[in-house]
Amino acid sequence: MEFDFAELEPQSRYRLLTNFVGPRPIALVTTRSSAGHNNAAPMSFFNVFSHDPPIVVLGIQPRLNGEEKDTVANIRRTQEFSINMVDMAIAQQMLVCGLGFDNEVDELDMAGLTATPCRKIDAAYAEESPCVFECRVERLIDYPRRTLVLGEVVHMHVRRNCLDAEGHYVDPEQYQPIARLHADNYIVSDRQFVLKAPPITDFVKPQRD
Question: CA 25, CA 45: separation in Å to the nearest integer?
Answer without folding.
Answer: 8
